[in-house]
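As promised in the previous annual report, we have extended the structural survey to additional targets. Below is the entry for 3-phosphoshikimate 1-carboxyvinyltransferase.
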Amino acid sequence: MKLHLFSQNTHIQQSITITGSKSESNRLLLLQALFPQLSIENVSNSDDACVMDEGLSIKEGVVDIHHAGTAMRFLTAFFAMQEGRSVILTGSKRMKERPIGILVDALRQLGADISFTQDEGYPPLQIEGRRLDESRVVMAANVSSQYISALLLIASRLPNGLELILEGDITSVPYIEMTLSLLNEIGVDTSFNGNIIRVMPLMNEPESKKLVVESDWSSASYFYSIVSICQLGTQVRLSSYKSNSLQGDSVLASIYQQFGVTTEFEDNQVVLTKTSEKLQLHFEYDLTHAPDIAQTIAVSCFALGIGCSLSGLHTLKIKETDRLEALKVELSKLGAQIDVTNSELFLKPSLTIKSEVTIDTYNDHRMAMAFAPLALKVPLYINDAEVVSKSYPDFWRDMEQIGFLISEQ
Ligand SMILES: O=C(O)C1=C[C@@H](OP(=O)(O)O)[C@@H](O)[C@H](O)C1
Ligand SMILES: C=C(OP(=O)(O)O)C(=O)O
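The corresponding C-alpha coordinate record, generated without further manual editing, is:
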Protein backbone atom coordinates (compact mmCIF):
# COMPACT_ATOMS: atom_id res chain seq x y z
CA MET A 1 0.00 0.00 0.00
CA LYS A 2 1.46 3.33 -1.13
CA LEU A 3 0.11 6.39 0.69
CA HIS A 4 0.18 10.06 -0.23
CA LEU A 5 0.41 12.32 2.85
CA PHE A 6 -0.02 16.01 3.37
CA SER A 7 -1.15 18.24 6.20
CA GLN A 8 -1.78 21.97 6.43
CA ASN A 9 -2.98 21.68 10.01
CA THR A 10 0.05 22.92 11.93
CA HIS A 11 -1.92 24.04 14.97
CA ILE A 12 -3.10 20.70 16.33
CA GLN A 13 -5.25 20.20 19.46
CA GLN A 14 -5.95 16.48 19.82
CA SER A 15 -6.09 13.54 22.20
CA ILE A 16 -4.85 10.15 21.03
CA THR A 17 -4.85 6.75 22.75
CA ILE A 18 -1.84 4.62 21.88
CA THR A 19 -1.69 0.84 22.29
CA GLY A 20 0.37 -0.80 25.07
CA SER A 21 4.16 -0.97 24.95
CA LYS A 22 5.24 -3.91 22.80
CA SER A 23 8.32 -4.41 24.96
CA GLU A 24 6.34 -4.61 28.22
CA SER A 25 3.61 -6.72 26.55
CA ASN A 26 5.99 -9.33 25.18
CA ARG A 27 7.73 -9.68 28.53
CA LEU A 28 4.46 -10.00 30.41
CA LEU A 29 3.01 -12.48 27.91
CA LEU A 30 6.00 -14.73 28.52
CA LEU A 31 5.77 -14.30 32.29
CA GLN A 32 2.06 -15.09 32.12
CA ALA A 33 2.86 -18.35 30.30
CA LEU A 34 5.22 -19.23 33.19
CA PHE A 35 2.91 -17.86 35.92
CA PRO A 36 -0.73 -18.28 34.76
CA GLN A 37 -2.03 -16.49 37.85
CA LEU A 38 -0.91 -13.17 36.28
CA SER A 39 -3.36 -11.12 34.24
CA ILE A 40 -2.43 -8.30 31.87
CA GLU A 41 -4.29 -5.14 30.86
CA ASN A 42 -3.66 -2.81 27.89
CA VAL A 43 -1.67 -5.47 26.00
CA SER A 44 -0.25 -4.13 22.74
CA ASN A 45 -2.33 -4.80 19.61
CA SER A 46 0.87 -4.85 17.54
CA ASP A 47 1.80 -7.70 15.19
CA ASP A 48 4.81 -8.39 17.41
CA ALA A 49 2.65 -8.95 20.49
CA CYS A 50 0.17 -11.09 18.49
CA VAL A 51 2.92 -13.40 17.18
CA MET A 52 4.37 -13.63 20.70
CA ASP A 53 0.98 -14.63 22.11
CA GLU A 54 0.36 -17.21 19.37
CA GLY A 55 3.92 -18.55 19.60
CA LEU A 56 3.62 -19.23 23.33
CA SER A 57 0.57 -21.44 22.76
CA ILE A 58 2.16 -23.69 20.11
CA LYS A 59 3.10 -27.07 21.57
CA GLU A 60 5.02 -28.72 18.69
CA GLY A 61 6.16 -27.93 15.15
CA VAL A 62 6.92 -24.66 13.40
CA VAL A 63 6.61 -21.32 15.20
CA ASP A 64 6.92 -18.36 12.80
CA ILE A 65 7.39 -15.00 14.51
CA HIS A 66 7.73 -12.99 11.25
CA HIS A 67 9.66 -9.74 11.95
CA ALA A 68 9.41 -9.67 15.76
CA GLY A 69 12.89 -9.50 17.33
CA THR A 70 11.67 -9.72 20.92
CA ALA A 71 9.42 -12.71 20.12
CA MET A 72 12.34 -14.49 18.40
CA ARG A 73 14.71 -13.97 21.31
CA PHE A 74 12.23 -14.43 24.19
CA LEU A 75 10.65 -17.57 22.67
CA THR A 76 14.09 -19.12 22.10
CA ALA A 77 14.67 -19.03 25.85
CA PHE A 78 11.09 -20.08 26.61
CA PHE A 79 11.07 -23.17 24.38
CA ALA A 80 14.58 -24.16 25.53
CA MET A 81 13.21 -24.80 29.06
CA GLN A 82 9.88 -26.41 28.06
CA GLU A 83 10.62 -30.07 28.84
CA GLY A 84 9.32 -32.44 26.17
CA ARG A 85 8.36 -29.74 23.64
CA SER A 86 10.13 -29.66 20.27
CA VAL A 87 9.80 -26.69 17.90
CA ILE A 88 11.41 -25.04 14.93
CA LEU A 89 11.48 -21.32 15.63
CA THR A 90 11.69 -19.22 12.49
CA GLY A 91 10.82 -15.81 11.09
CA SER A 92 10.90 -13.54 8.06
CA LYS A 93 13.75 -13.34 5.54
CA ARG A 94 15.16 -10.41 7.53
CA MET A 95 14.84 -12.32 10.83
CA LYS A 96 17.10 -15.00 9.32
CA GLU A 97 19.75 -12.27 8.93
CA ARG A 98 19.46 -11.01 12.53
CA PRO A 99 22.09 -12.74 14.72
CA ILE A 100 21.08 -14.98 17.63
CA GLY A 101 24.29 -16.99 18.24
CA ILE A 102 25.11 -15.16 21.49
CA LEU A 103 21.76 -16.16 23.02
CA VAL A 104 21.96 -19.75 21.76
CA ASP A 105 25.46 -20.08 23.20
CA ALA A 106 24.26 -18.67 26.54
CA LEU A 107 21.35 -21.12 26.68
CA ARG A 108 23.69 -24.00 25.81
CA GLN A 109 25.78 -23.00 28.86
CA LEU A 110 22.62 -23.60 30.90
CA GLY A 111 22.20 -27.03 29.27
CA ALA A 112 19.85 -26.25 26.35
CA ASP A 113 19.55 -28.38 23.20
CA ILE A 114 19.33 -25.90 20.30
CA SER A 115 20.68 -26.24 16.77
CA PHE A 116 20.78 -23.96 13.73
CA THR A 117 18.88 -25.50 10.81
CA GLN A 118 20.35 -23.20 8.13
CA ASP A 119 23.15 -20.70 8.84
CA GLU A 120 25.25 -21.03 11.99
CA GLY A 121 24.33 -18.18 14.38
CA TYR A 122 20.99 -17.26 12.73
CA PRO A 123 17.35 -18.44 12.77
CA PRO A 124 15.69 -20.86 12.12
CA LEU A 125 16.40 -22.82 15.30
CA GLN A 126 15.54 -26.39 16.19
CA ILE A 127 14.78 -26.36 19.92
CA GLU A 128 14.34 -29.54 22.01
CA GLY A 129 12.99 -28.34 25.34
CA ARG A 130 14.61 -29.80 28.46
CA ARG A 131 15.35 -29.09 32.12
CA LEU A 132 18.13 -26.50 32.37
CA ASP A 133 20.18 -27.43 35.45
CA GLU A 134 23.09 -25.01 35.16
CA SER A 135 22.79 -21.45 36.45
CA ARG A 136 25.95 -19.54 35.46
CA VAL A 137 26.31 -17.85 32.08
CA VAL A 138 28.98 -15.58 30.59
CA MET A 139 27.79 -13.60 27.57
CA ALA A 140 28.52 -10.56 25.39
CA ALA A 141 26.32 -7.59 26.26
CA ASN A 142 27.20 -5.20 23.45
CA VAL A 143 25.12 -6.62 20.58
CA SER A 144 21.51 -6.78 21.81
CA SER A 145 19.96 -6.47 25.27
CA GLN A 146 17.17 -8.77 24.08
CA TYR A 147 19.46 -11.79 24.58
CA ILE A 148 19.90 -10.77 28.21
CA SER A 149 16.19 -10.08 28.80
CA ALA A 150 15.35 -13.46 27.25
CA LEU A 151 17.46 -15.27 29.86
CA LEU A 152 16.20 -13.11 32.73
CA LEU A 153 12.57 -13.81 31.83
CA ILE A 154 12.93 -17.59 32.22
CA ALA A 155 15.44 -17.37 35.09
CA SER A 156 13.09 -17.53 38.06
CA ARG A 157 11.64 -20.82 36.73
CA LEU A 158 15.10 -22.43 36.46
CA PRO A 159 15.87 -24.86 39.29
CA ASN A 160 18.87 -22.82 40.47
CA GLY A 161 18.06 -19.31 39.21
CA LEU A 162 20.62 -17.43 37.14
CA GLU A 163 23.95 -15.69 37.51
CA LEU A 164 24.74 -13.71 34.37
CA ILE A 165 28.20 -12.26 33.79
CA LEU A 166 28.10 -9.62 31.09
CA GLU A 167 31.10 -8.90 28.90
CA GLY A 168 31.76 -5.67 26.99
CA ASP A 169 29.77 -2.40 27.07
CA ILE A 170 26.16 -3.10 27.97
CA THR A 171 23.78 -1.80 25.30
CA SER A 172 20.10 -0.76 25.64
CA VAL A 173 20.32 -0.92 29.46
CA PRO A 174 16.80 0.46 30.17
CA TYR A 175 15.31 -2.61 28.47
CA ILE A 176 17.25 -4.86 30.89
CA GLU A 177 16.05 -2.73 33.80
CA MET A 178 12.47 -3.00 32.50
CA THR A 179 12.76 -6.80 32.56
CA LEU A 180 14.13 -6.77 36.11
CA SER A 181 11.43 -4.34 37.30
CA LEU A 182 8.67 -6.55 35.92
CA LEU A 183 10.22 -9.58 37.63
CA ASN A 184 10.36 -7.62 40.89
CA GLU A 185 6.69 -6.66 40.47
CA ILE A 186 5.67 -10.31 40.47
CA GLY A 187 7.85 -11.04 43.50
CA VAL A 188 11.09 -12.32 41.98
CA ASP A 189 14.33 -11.20 43.68
CA THR A 190 17.02 -9.82 41.38
CA SER A 191 20.24 -7.85 41.60
CA PHE A 192 22.21 -5.92 38.96
CA ASN A 193 25.66 -4.80 40.12
CA GLY A 194 28.28 -3.72 37.61
CA ASN A 195 28.36 -6.50 35.02
CA ILE A 196 26.67 -9.20 37.11
CA ILE A 197 22.94 -9.87 37.16
CA ARG A 198 21.42 -12.44 39.53
CA VAL A 199 17.88 -13.81 39.53
CA MET A 200 16.73 -16.00 42.41
CA PRO A 201 14.56 -19.04 41.72
CA LEU A 202 11.00 -18.42 42.87
CA MET A 203 10.29 -20.43 46.02
CA ASN A 204 6.62 -19.59 46.42
CA GLU A 205 4.13 -19.09 43.61
CA PRO A 206 3.32 -15.39 43.06
CA GLU A 207 -0.11 -14.14 44.16
CA SER A 208 -2.64 -13.64 41.36
CA LYS A 209 -1.95 -10.14 40.16
CA LYS A 210 -3.14 -7.73 37.46
CA LEU A 211 -0.36 -5.92 35.61
CA VAL A 212 -1.21 -2.87 33.54
CA VAL A 213 0.96 -2.17 30.50
CA GLU A 214 1.84 1.48 30.00
CA SER A 215 1.28 2.71 26.43
CA ASP A 216 4.21 2.65 24.04
CA TRP A 217 6.76 5.47 24.35
CA SER A 218 8.49 4.62 21.06
CA SER A 219 5.10 5.18 19.37
CA ALA A 220 4.76 8.48 21.27
CA SER A 221 7.98 9.64 19.57
CA TYR A 222 6.11 10.36 16.31
CA PHE A 223 3.83 12.79 18.16
CA TYR A 224 6.83 14.50 19.74
CA SER A 225 8.20 14.94 16.24
CA ILE A 226 4.87 16.31 14.96
CA VAL A 227 4.47 18.76 17.85
CA SER A 228 8.06 19.99 17.41
CA ILE A 229 7.36 20.81 13.74
CA CYS A 230 4.00 22.55 14.44
CA GLN A 231 3.18 26.12 15.49
CA LEU A 232 3.46 27.44 19.04
CA GLY A 233 0.49 26.36 21.14
CA THR A 234 0.04 23.00 19.41
CA GLN A 235 -0.98 20.43 21.99
CA VAL A 236 -1.32 16.65 21.78
CA ARG A 237 -2.50 14.53 24.71
CA LEU A 238 -1.49 10.88 24.70
CA SER A 239 -2.97 8.08 26.87
CA SER A 240 -2.10 6.09 28.96
CA TYR A 241 1.27 7.24 30.25
CA LYS A 242 2.98 7.83 33.56
CA SER A 243 5.97 9.92 34.65
CA ASN A 244 7.81 6.98 36.26
CA SER A 245 7.93 4.85 33.13
CA LEU A 246 9.78 1.54 32.78
CA GLN A 247 10.44 2.42 29.14
CA GLY A 248 13.78 4.04 28.35
CA ASP A 249 12.28 5.87 25.37
CA SER A 250 10.53 8.16 27.84
CA VAL A 251 13.80 10.10 27.62
CA LEU A 252 11.94 11.74 24.69
CA ALA A 253 10.56 14.28 27.16
CA SER A 254 14.00 15.75 27.87
CA ILE A 255 15.23 15.39 24.28
CA TYR A 256 12.26 17.22 22.72
CA GLN A 257 12.42 19.95 25.36
CA GLN A 258 15.45 21.02 23.31
CA PHE A 259 13.20 21.19 20.22
CA GLY A 260 10.64 23.44 21.97
CA VAL A 261 8.25 20.72 23.22
CA THR A 262 7.21 20.78 26.88
CA THR A 263 6.01 17.57 28.55
CA GLU A 264 3.50 17.44 31.43
CA PHE A 265 1.71 14.52 33.05
CA GLU A 266 -1.99 14.89 33.89
CA ASP A 267 -3.89 11.91 35.28
CA ASN A 268 -3.07 9.09 32.88
CA GLN A 269 -2.04 11.38 30.03
CA VAL A 270 1.20 12.84 28.81
CA VAL A 271 0.62 16.31 27.38
CA LEU A 272 2.99 17.58 24.69
CA THR A 273 2.90 21.33 24.01
CA LYS A 274 4.94 23.39 21.58
CA THR A 275 6.10 26.21 23.84
CA SER A 276 9.22 27.61 22.23
CA GLU A 277 10.61 28.33 18.78
CA LYS A 278 14.10 28.99 20.06
CA LEU A 279 16.21 26.20 18.69
CA GLN A 280 19.85 25.33 18.82
CA LEU A 281 21.64 24.91 15.49
CA HIS A 282 23.19 21.57 16.34
CA PHE A 283 21.92 18.63 18.39
CA GLU A 284 24.27 15.98 19.78
CA TYR A 285 23.14 12.83 21.55
CA ASP A 286 24.27 9.29 22.41
CA LEU A 287 21.37 6.90 21.77
CA THR A 288 23.04 3.71 23.09
CA HIS A 289 20.17 3.29 25.55
CA ALA A 290 17.28 4.43 23.32
CA PRO A 291 18.02 3.11 19.81
CA ASP A 292 14.38 2.95 18.63
CA ILE A 293 13.95 6.73 18.59
CA ALA A 294 16.98 7.39 16.38
CA GLN A 295 14.98 7.58 13.15
CA THR A 296 12.36 9.89 14.69
CA ILE A 297 15.03 12.27 15.98
CA ALA A 298 17.02 12.34 12.73
CA VAL A 299 13.87 13.21 10.75
CA SER A 300 12.76 15.83 13.33
CA CYS A 301 16.15 17.54 13.08
CA PHE A 302 15.92 17.55 9.29
CA ALA A 303 12.38 19.01 9.39
CA LEU A 304 13.47 21.70 11.85
CA GLY A 305 16.57 22.63 9.84
CA ILE A 306 18.86 21.58 12.71
CA GLY A 307 22.10 19.68 12.19
CA CYS A 308 22.73 16.64 14.39
CA SER A 309 25.41 14.18 15.46
CA LEU A 310 23.86 11.01 16.83
CA SER A 311 26.10 8.31 18.33
CA GLY A 312 25.61 4.92 20.03
CA LEU A 313 23.78 3.60 16.95
CA HIS A 314 25.73 0.31 16.59
CA THR A 315 22.58 -1.82 17.05
CA LEU A 316 20.71 -0.09 14.21
CA LYS A 317 22.44 -2.18 11.55
CA ILE A 318 20.85 -5.42 12.82
CA LYS A 319 17.29 -4.22 13.36
CA GLU A 320 14.32 -4.56 10.95
CA THR A 321 16.65 -3.18 8.27
CA ASP A 322 20.05 -1.51 8.34
CA ARG A 323 18.48 1.68 9.71
CA LEU A 324 21.62 3.80 9.28
CA GLU A 325 21.83 3.02 5.57
CA ALA A 326 18.04 3.39 5.14
CA LEU A 327 18.09 6.83 6.81
CA LYS A 328 20.97 7.93 4.64
CA VAL A 329 19.25 6.89 1.39
CA GLU A 330 15.80 8.28 2.25
CA LEU A 331 16.89 11.58 3.84
CA SER A 332 19.21 12.16 0.87
CA LYS A 333 16.23 11.80 -1.51
CA LEU A 334 14.61 14.72 0.34
CA GLY A 335 17.75 16.84 -0.13
CA ALA A 336 19.54 16.20 3.19
CA GLN A 337 23.31 16.18 3.52
CA ILE A 338 23.90 13.14 5.68
CA ASP A 339 26.75 10.78 6.51
CA VAL A 340 26.71 7.58 8.53
CA THR A 341 29.33 5.27 10.02
CA ASN A 342 28.69 1.89 11.68
CA SER A 343 27.48 3.63 14.82
CA GLU A 344 26.92 7.34 14.10
CA LEU A 345 24.85 9.66 11.99
CA PHE A 346 25.80 13.22 10.99
CA LEU A 347 23.23 15.55 9.47
CA LYS A 348 23.94 19.07 8.21
CA PRO A 349 21.30 21.77 8.80
CA SER A 350 19.29 22.38 5.64
CA LEU A 351 16.54 24.86 4.86
CA THR A 352 14.83 23.15 1.93
CA ILE A 353 12.95 19.86 1.71
CA LYS A 354 12.10 18.34 -1.68
CA SER A 355 8.39 17.68 -2.11
CA GLU A 356 6.49 14.71 -3.60
CA VAL A 357 9.37 12.34 -2.77
CA THR A 358 8.56 8.62 -2.32
CA ILE A 359 10.00 7.14 0.88
CA ASP A 360 10.88 3.44 0.88
CA THR A 361 10.31 1.64 4.17
CA TYR A 362 12.42 -1.58 3.93
CA ASN A 363 9.93 -3.70 5.97
CA ASP A 364 10.64 -1.32 8.85
CA HIS A 365 7.67 0.20 10.68
CA ARG A 366 9.87 2.97 12.08
CA MET A 367 10.93 4.14 8.61
CA ALA A 368 7.26 4.77 7.72
CA MET A 369 6.34 6.39 11.03
CA ALA A 370 9.49 8.50 11.42
CA PHE A 371 9.09 10.08 7.97
CA ALA A 372 5.32 10.71 8.22
CA PRO A 373 5.64 13.98 10.26
CA LEU A 374 7.43 15.55 7.28
CA ALA A 375 3.99 15.79 5.64
CA LEU A 376 3.54 18.93 7.77
CA LYS A 377 6.27 20.50 5.64
CA VAL A 378 5.87 18.94 2.16
CA PRO A 379 3.55 16.44 0.47
CA LEU A 380 5.21 13.01 0.28
CA TYR A 381 4.55 9.34 -0.49
CA ILE A 382 5.22 6.39 1.81
CA ASN A 383 5.71 2.96 0.18
CA ASP A 384 4.44 -0.23 1.86
CA ALA A 385 2.77 1.87 4.54
CA GLU A 386 1.17 -1.21 6.15
CA VAL A 387 4.54 -1.98 7.80
CA VAL A 388 3.45 0.16 10.76
CA SER A 389 1.43 -2.78 12.12
CA LYS A 390 4.63 -4.29 13.56
CA SER A 391 4.30 -1.98 16.56
CA TYR A 392 1.43 0.49 15.91
CA PRO A 393 -1.40 -0.83 13.69
CA ASP A 394 -3.58 2.27 14.25
CA PHE A 395 -0.89 4.73 13.21
CA TRP A 396 -2.48 5.97 9.95
CA ARG A 397 -5.92 6.28 11.57
CA ASP A 398 -4.34 8.42 14.31
CA MET A 399 -2.51 10.56 11.73
CA GLU A 400 -5.87 11.26 10.07
CA GLN A 401 -7.29 12.15 13.47
CA ILE A 402 -4.67 14.89 13.91
CA GLY A 403 -5.50 16.31 10.49
CA PHE A 404 -3.23 14.53 7.99
CA LEU A 405 -4.80 14.14 4.55
CA ILE A 406 -3.99 10.59 3.52
CA SER A 407 -4.88 8.91 0.23
CA GLU A 408 -4.04 5.48 -1.08
CA GLN A 409 -2.29 5.53 -4.48
O1 LIG B 1 13.91 -5.66 24.85
C1 LIG B 1 13.20 -4.99 24.10
O2 LIG B 1 11.96 -4.95 24.21
C2 LIG B 1 13.85 -4.21 23.02
C3 LIG B 1 15.20 -3.95 23.07
C4 LIG B 1 15.91 -3.12 22.06
O3 LIG B 1 16.72 -3.98 21.28
P1 LIG B 1 18.33 -4.10 21.43
O4 LIG B 1 18.65 -4.48 22.80
O5 LIG B 1 18.65 -5.18 20.44
O6 LIG B 1 18.89 -2.77 21.06
C5 LIG B 1 14.92 -2.39 21.16
O7 LIG B 1 15.58 -1.90 20.03
C6 LIG B 1 13.75 -3.25 20.73
O8 LIG B 1 12.85 -2.55 19.93
C7 LIG B 1 12.99 -3.74 21.93
C1 LIG C 1 14.05 -3.00 16.88
C2 LIG C 1 12.74 -3.13 17.04
O1 LIG C 1 12.10 -4.30 17.27
P1 LIG C 1 12.63 -5.80 17.39
O2 LIG C 1 14.12 -5.79 17.59
O3 LIG C 1 11.91 -6.34 18.58
O4 LIG C 1 12.24 -6.50 16.12
C3 LIG C 1 11.88 -1.92 17.01
O5 LIG C 1 10.69 -2.06 17.31
O6 LIG C 1 12.34 -0.82 16.66
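The mean pLDDT is 97. Residues 68-70, 292, 319-320, 366, 391 surround phosphoenolpyruvate (ligand 2) (CB under 6 Å). These points will be discussed at the next consortium meeting with the crystallography subgroup.
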